[in-house]
Fold these 2 entries.
Entry 1:
Amino acid sequence: MEAGLDPETKAKLIASPEAILSDRDLMRALVDAREADLGDNVIDIRGRAMEALESRLDRLESAHETVIAAAYDNQSGTAVVHRAVLGLLECTDLSDLVGALQSHIAPLLRIETLRLLVEHGPGLPRMPEDVIVLPEGAVELALAAGRRAPRGEDIQLRRAAIVTEPAHGRRVASEALIPLDLGQGRPPALILMGSADPSRFQPAHGTDLLRFFAQVFRLVLLDRLRA
């Protein structure tokens, strides 16, 4: 006689067949055993259908995990930027605001460098020493990063360029450049962020949170300039 399941195990499986149906390894073993009994000249359509469904389920699970991870990263990034914005609002004057960028705000944003760059020109008020004052036209050159045609006046996310390394004050792997309009009669300005992580700032990344941070920073900066 062929060996079979003992009565107790058999009764448990009959009472709860989902124990097998929900276990993909067991179901695969059963299908493989069935195909082995059928021989090489017979194709079990149900087995092939199960393989196709398993492949589709794997893709769906992978997509689901990707969506969850992206949502978590977005929520985490939002919280980081919110903390940084609160840090900006706590600064009492212009000197405090500029000094806090590297010492306090950069760690909150989890980056290595955070600088304010302003072009020298008419309308430039007296700035704290932590502000990097550039020659006229330097902001456009920094945004262009050596290209003949500038990439426009929008936020730039990219691998660190040689032209901005002196402003960072250290070697970074990726950077974000955020142009600032300080109003009529004032020269162009730029927020420069740098990270040691080469994947931190990439052209394909969204810029909504950085744009929000820059808008708040601009308003706080203009308020402190008027003080």
Entry 2:
Amino acid sequence: MGGKYRVTGAAYPRMSRKRSPRRIVFAVLGSVLALALLGYGALQLIDVFQGDSPKRNTAAGAKDCPTKAADTAAKRGPEAAAAATPKPAVVLPKPADITVNVYNATPRAGLAKAVGDELRKRGFNVGNVGNAPADFDKKVPGTGILLGSPTTDKAAYSVLGTQLAGTTQQTDARETAEIDLILGDAFKDLSTKEDADKALALLANPVPAPAAKC
């Protein structure tokens, strides 16, 4: 070019495009995302090498908890160690091994026979059936009394007690193993067969106490 628009000197003006705002925003977002990914990856690597994540610690603690409980119980003594050991199922006498005398201490006629017949159907060995002795006749306000010898197996009382709720236990001077079931004024009916069977199952396999927190 010549004349008035002649270019002189060794420097030439450079023409450059203006940077788009969108490109700047995308560049900034890309940098932030890359830094976030790098930080997350670094945290994962630290967790792998240190090996003490909360989940891993929780799992390890859960596995060690029973062992710690047993060790603690052992240090406290034989009784505590025995309590920490899972208990086997309780061996209960069978209904057929329990002799029951059914006596009616209420004004309701035929009650002892009806209850005796039902207990016999449920497998119990039913002995005497009739009215209650004078010491108890019309003098039992509750559901009933289980009366037996001091030497009678306590489990026999428990097994018979599953057949009706609310009974009390008493002993007398007898030397035989049979148990008297003396029906009182509050007696309505025996527990259903289903409920009695559930109570027997729970009696044989009691629910263990909640485990100690670690």
